[in-house]
Each structure stands twice: as C-alpha cells, then as structure tokens.
Amino acid sequence: TELSSQKKFDEIKKANQAAAKKLVEDQFSSSSEDDDEDAELKQGKILAKTFTIYTSQTDGDVSDLERTRQYMNEAFQSGAMTCLICIASVKRNQAVWSCCGCFCIFHLVCIQKWARDSLFLVSSPLTDDDFGKKDYPWPCPKCRFEYKRSETPSRYYCYCGKVENPTVDPWLVPHSCGQTCEREFKPPCGHKCLLLCHPGPCPPCPKMVTTTCHCKKAKAVPRRCSAKEWSCRLPCGRMLLCGQHTCENPCHAGDCQPCPRVSKQRCICGRQTAERLCASPQWQCDQVCGKRLPCGNHTCEQVCHAGPCGDCPRSGKRSCPCGKSKFTLPCTEDVPTCGDSCDKVLECGIHKCSQRCHRGPCVICRQEVEKQCRCGKHTRRMPCHKPYLCETKCTKIRDCQKHQCRRKCCPGNCPPCDQVCGRTLGCRNHKCPSGCHRGSCNPCPETVDVKCNCGKTVIKVPCGRERTIKPPKCRQLCSRPPTCHHPTQEKHYCHFGRCPPCRQSCQKTLACGHLCPVPCHDEALVKQTGLHQSAGPWEQPSEPAFIQTALPCPLCEVPIPVECLGQHEVSPLPCHCANPYSCKRFCGRLLDCQNHTCMKECHRVTKLNSDADGKKVGPECSQCEEECAKPRPPGCPHRCVLPCHPGACPSCLQMLKIKCHCRLSILYIECLKLTGADLKEKELLVSCRNQCPKELPCGHRCKEVCHSGSCPLNCSQKVKLRCLCKRLKKEIQCSKIQEGQVSLECDALCKEMKRKASEV
Question: Three-state secondary structure along 337-390?
C-alpha cells in the first residue's frame, strides 16, 4: 500500500511540474528568445545581409535605409512587434498580415475577424438601406487605410508577397522569404526594390539616371533616381502670366509664382488708378457707374463694370406683381396691380395666397388643417404654418443595439447613439472613447513610455504592452552607491535589480603588508547547504539557494624571491610560503681535495668564518674518499700512489719496459725521463743505436741508425750501370738510378762495332 501511494504521488508530481513548465514557456515566449548579446550579433549579421545588394551593387546611401532599418529592428526586438487588435506579441511562427499604408503587422486571424466585423457594421440594414448592393470597404485598425471586401486577406504571405507560408529561418528576418523584394518603388519610377524581403517601406530608389534640371538650362547629369528632380539654382527666366516680366526665382519645379512686382493700374471702369500687384491687373473700384441709360431718364446702377451699360431695366413689357397681366408703359411709370387674386403658392407649399394682386411678400398661411405629427401616431387641427410635434418618445433601439432612441416624435430615422461606449479596451488601462457602437472596439490609440531604471532612456509601446515588454537598454552609467568597501563602483550601464558583483581588485592590506589582488569578495555568492522537503507534488524541485556573504582574503600569492638552502638558485615563491627550501640539486661545493664536489642533496651549510665565501664547503658537506684521479703526464700508464689530494701529483719513478724503433731490442727507461722528454729526446731514448734492419724498395738495407717511422728512400749504395751493348760500364748511386736521372749511352766505337757485326 505504501509503495502504490508513493508511486501515485510521483506520477501526480511529474504531471503538475510538466503542466507548470508548459504554462511558463507559453506565457513568456516571445519573437526573440535568444540571449541579448547573441541576438544582437545575429541581428547585425541579418541586417547586413539584407542591405548588401543595396549598398554594394548600387553604391546606395545607408542613410536612406534608416526608416526600413527601424521596422527591421522592431521585427527583431522582443515585444516590439505587437498586434494592435489582440495586444499580444507577434511570434516568428505565427501567420501575419502587413498593412500597405502604415506597414503595421497584425495576426492573420485577428485582421480577418476585424475585417468581418467592420463589414458587418457598415453594411448593417439598421444603418444603410442598400444592404448587399455595395462593396463596402474595411479600414486598417491603425492608419484607417481602406481596403475592398475582395482584399480581405485569406492566406499568409511573406512581406514581398512571393512565397505563401514562408518557413521559419533563424538567419532571416521574421516572416521573410529571403528572396529579393522586387516591389515597385513609390512613387513608381520603373525600378524595383533590391533589398531582401523586408518589413516596412522600401528605401528610395538607388539607381542612377541621367536627367536635367527643372528649367532645362543645365546639362544633363547622372543622379539617383529617387533624387532625379534637381535645381541648377540659376534664374528661371520663364515669362510670367502678366506677359511683361520673367520669373527671377531660382530654377524650380512646377508653375512659376505670380509676378511679385507692383505697378499703377486702372480699375475696370477706368475712373481710379492704384498701385497693385502686376499679377492681378483686373480690379473693381467701389463707385456706382452712374452713366445715363438710353432711355434718358435713369442712370446705370451697376458698380464699376466694363462694356456698355445696356438698356433700361424698366423698358419694354412688364408684368404686374402677381404675374398674370402684362403692360407696356413708359419707364417713368410703375406697373399697376391687376385686381385679380394673387394665387401664389405660400410657404407651406399646399395653399395659395387669397389676397388680391399686391406688391411685396405674401402673408403666412393661416388656414386650419388636420395635421399628423412627425412620428405618425397623433393628429390635431391647427394653423397650417405651425409644425406639430407630439410628446411621445421613440422606443426603437439605436444602431448600437443597446440604447433606445428616446427622441420626441421621431420619424423613424433614429440618429446614431450619442452616448460614449465606455467599455474597457484590450489594454486594460483605458475605456473606449468612441460613441456607443456594436462589435469590437478599436485598439487603444494611446502609447505608454517604458523607461529604464534611471528614467533617461524611454521607448514608446502600445498601451497594454508595458507589463510584458522588456525595459530598453540604457547607455547611461549606473549611479547607485557601491555596496562593498570600495569608494566607487565599477562602471556599468543602467539596470534593474541588484548591481553586478564588484570585479575591482580587493586592495585590502594583508598581514604580510601586501595588498589583496583578487576581485572584491565582500558580496560573494555561497551555496546554502541543507535539504529541503517538498510540500507536495505541485512544487517544483528547488534550485540550490545561494546567499551573499563576505569572504576572508585568500593567502598572499605575491611572488617573493627566495634563495634555496644551498644558494644554488633564487626562485619566486608565494608570500605565504616564502621560506628557505631545498632545490633537490646536488650541493656542488668543492671539497677539501679540490677535485670533487659534495654530492648531498641541497642542504644548509654553516659558515665557520663570517668572512668566508658563501660557496665554501661546510661541516655538513660529505668527505672525499676517492683515489686520486688526476690526469697523468702523457705516456705515463701508472696511477698516483697518493689518495685524492690537492695540488700536483708527485713524479713517477717506475721503469718502463719498451721495444726500440726497429722492434728488435728491449729497453728499460725511467717513466719520468720518457714522459718529460720532448720529441727529439724521446727519439733518442727509444733508439737501440744499431743499424736499421729494414729493407728499402730497391732491395738494399737501410743505412740509418734505429729510427721511428719509414726509412728514407735516398739509397746511397753504389751500383754498376752498362750501356745497351754491354761494352761500357759505370758505378752510380742507387737512388739516382731509381729516380731515372742517370742513363749510359753507347759511344761511337760501340756503334761502329755494331755496324760491322751486322755486316758480317
């Protein structure tokens, strides 16, 4: 039973936590959910990509893009894109519609409902008798730009209208297809927008065209299509309407202004002269004409006119006052009354005047008639000229479908409701100020200032969004006093909530005298320990709590140069552990033998004499127990008979047994003599003083005394040399024959003997 209860408890806990998490995500999700710095970086890249074609291919001026850039910034800013109908954020994945007049963005579902409600109100039979006969328009909720019934949006398109249901791409402007806009510029110039699909108006046309000035005097120059109308600033020179002067204004567009010069001009009748503007030469004075008419009895009564005065208005046939009889009388006599009844229709439009023909207006109608009131519910007998209004109040419902007309004697065309609507708007802050109406109220027209913490940075948002919009980023420095021991806090921008942790160096004086170099730790966050028992399955697992507390300064880490025990090196050690240490090397001090060093690990050495050198050996060092290993004189193979000692070794007195140079005799020589002799002395000491037994290349024995190295090649042995016929002979040194320097030729006798022998 306990296990099943615990299992059921865990299941309910997981379900409640999942529901709470989903609610939080739905409530606080917005069109931009990235981190602020990453979002700004991404936004900058997307804007640069969108404006690349405009700025690179056509060398467009970026200042012309500011209005479009403002709309695109609002598209990225969290909460800036707000549907004015439902007062909710417009997310990336929601279908939207953009007004072509004010470029305001609405949810597609909201604008469809708005259009249906607007069309129903304006085409209601209570307000218009032509229901179903006219194509009534519906207005934009913001700018009141009117659209036809057929223009009611039914599908979700991107801003340029090319792609239906554009996909959500985090590297594109929200609700954009990423293609070139290609919308016609306004006013149309024949070119198309080169930006990528974007919200807001298209920038001015950046194309270059060749055009001349307004007055056509200057030479045609290449200019931006959006600024192709230009002035050369020279005098216009066109003839003005007065026909006498030319326009002196600088080159301008449109018609020339009226001539500003003043001249003396006569009136129409020519009696008066006055200074007037040259642009208005026709003017009338205030004098009556007064010329004698053709009848000779009357004068013209017209005020200042041109041309002849005309005939006398009293000449010819004239009618009596009632118009029934005509008389031909001189212009000096008045027309008499005819004596018949007047019979003119009175002001009531029903009865006629019963008086005899008379001059002047007819009297009011005094006949008594049966009159019906305006609403048609009551009748009364009364004079015809008096209107009859009953006291019955109209009970019809006005077009607001809420209030009665309550107008006395209403004929049925009840006026619109004159009461104020007063319903709370979607912003939940204001009430509808419009007259009482049916359907949804218009969006709240008010805007609310959302301020930063210091109040110097302000953004305007639609009323009702101030509770969910993020405060603007303020570039003013925070002016709060520091909460740590520093006199001034680190510079940072205005913000809400607590100031960020102080990152200045602590700079408190430590016990060693140095300043603490670590960042300020007066308000360090420390995790709070302890287990928390959940109150129920609805409670989210709590994150570990952190508390702010002041931490002590850490140990001093300032590097202090410290020499090791054996004075081998100086290493920087942290101040808190700056004590003499062993560097783990060998001691290396020269022992008393002056040949070896102390092989102990780096250790402390006591100075026996205060004036002694710091590198001298001490009593703690080891004693040398080695044999003497000093190098012997060259050629001496014997070891030193003494133990390791300072100074030079004694002379070697042992005898050396060596062979002579010719390797035939064995000699005994003192080691000292042999090692101390130079090359010549060594040559003599090692020689046996006998003839060298070696044989020369010529075959003779070397004549030199026992020597080292190779025998000399200049053999001095005498040999016999004969000529070719063997008759002559001569003794010559062997070395010369070997070198080929000497040869014995046959003489004349030899040649003669050789000739005779050949003859025989």
Answer: CCCCECCCECCCCCCECCCECCCCCCCCCCCEEEEECCCCCCEEEEECCCCCCC
Answer yes or no: are the C-beta atoms of 579 and 563 closer than 8 Å.
no
Single-letter code of the amino acid located at 58: T
Report how far residue 582's alpha carbon sits from residue 573's, in angstroms, rounded to the nearest whole number.
Answer: 13
Between 548 and 55, the more confident residue is 548
- Around 134, how many Cα atoms within 13 Å sit in the side-chain half-sphere? 13
Q: Which of 185, 171, 262, 253 is nearest to 215 (CA)?
A: 253
CA distance 356 to 340: 5
Q: How far apart are CA 245 and CA 237, in angstroms?
A: 9
Q: Could you report how far apart the first and last alpha carbons of the chain are, in Å?
A: 158
Could you tell me the two tokens for 170? Answer: 């985090």
pLDDT at 62 over 60: no
Q: What is the pLDDT of residues 638-695, one digit of tens each?
A: 888 888 888 888 888 788 888 888 888 888 888 878 887 888 888 888 888 888 888 8
Residue-wise pLDDT for 186-217, tens only, equals 888 888 888 888 888 888 888 888 889 888 88
How many angstroms separate the Cα of 663 from the Cα of each of 60, 556, 678, 688, 713? 107, 81, 21, 9, 20
For residue 6, how many other CB atoms are within 10 A of its CB? 10
- Compute the chain's Rg from CA coordinates: 65
| Residue that is written with structure tokens 């000449």 in the block | 315
DSSP codes joined into one string, 155-192: S-B-TTS-SBSPPP-TTS-TT--SSB--PBPSS--S-B
**What residue type is 653 in one-letter code?**
L
Residue-level pLDDT at 65: 65
Polymer length of the chain: 760
In the structure encoding, which two tokens stand for residue 576, read together?
């808190």
Give yes or no for a contact between 233 and 249, defined as CB atoms under 8 angstroms apart: no
- Between the CA of residue 305 and those of 266, 268, 276, 293, what are the distances in Å? 12, 6, 18, 14
The pLDDT tens digits for 233-291 are: 888 888 888 778 888 889 988 888 888 888 888 888 888 888 888 877 788 888 888 88
